[in-house]
User: Fold this.
Amino acid sequence: MPLEVFTIPCLRDNYAYLLHDAATGAVGVVDVPEAQPILEALAARGWTASTILITHHHDDHIAGVEEIRRQHGARVVGALADQHRLPALDEEVREGDTVTVGSETGQVIEVPGHTVGHIAFHFPDSRALFTADSLMALGCGRLFEGTGPQMWDSLSRLSALPPETLVYSGHEYTASNARFARAIDPENAALIYRCEQVEAARAEGRPTVPSLLSEEISTNPFLRAGTPEIRRVLDMPDATDAEVFTEIRRRKDAF
Ligand code: ZN
Ligand code: FE
Assistant:
């Protein structure tokens, strides 16, 4: 039975996720931007958090970890590479390692770019991919620590996962990402349609996550660095995909 995933809005525009394994009652939490909304969501369902999965060390993803650990006795899992700047880890993981939530197994994928130690969690049986600030709906995280080619490589590996995968990113940035995407990829019909969906969702206060990986591949400009359309707009016919990606990221930062 796949994990049930619940989206928990936190802070101003962050998302945390509850992963419920109905078979065992185990509950995973992906990122803890703040404790309160997560404690309330757990209490409302009568659940105990068994595992906290941390994607990266930024405060808006870990600030509530200790509180959930204290109140629920949850095990904390995070990247070995970042253990010096994460809350104390009960389990350190790296590329290729697995994590478990009850009877479900997830793969750890290292996705450097936003930070060098950023990891994503892929639960193939649940079609769920937790990307935080690597791949985002219609966007990707800013390059605070990694390089353009590094992030391009990270995104390329994520986009090679099954197209029916659901992408759970860490923020509700989709409406502003959509404005940039429209500017750089103006003739993409799938993108125009998606932007309308995004506007409608936000007008009703609905989250725009998760999104389908197939939808990201056809509409997210950062995944389209290899396409002739984007290269034409940027006038970069002979550049490498990583160079085109880096230029798109630079333009987004200035947008
Ligand atoms: Zn971050
Ligand atoms: Fe963040």
In short: The chain has one domain: 4-254. The chain has nine helices and 14 strands.
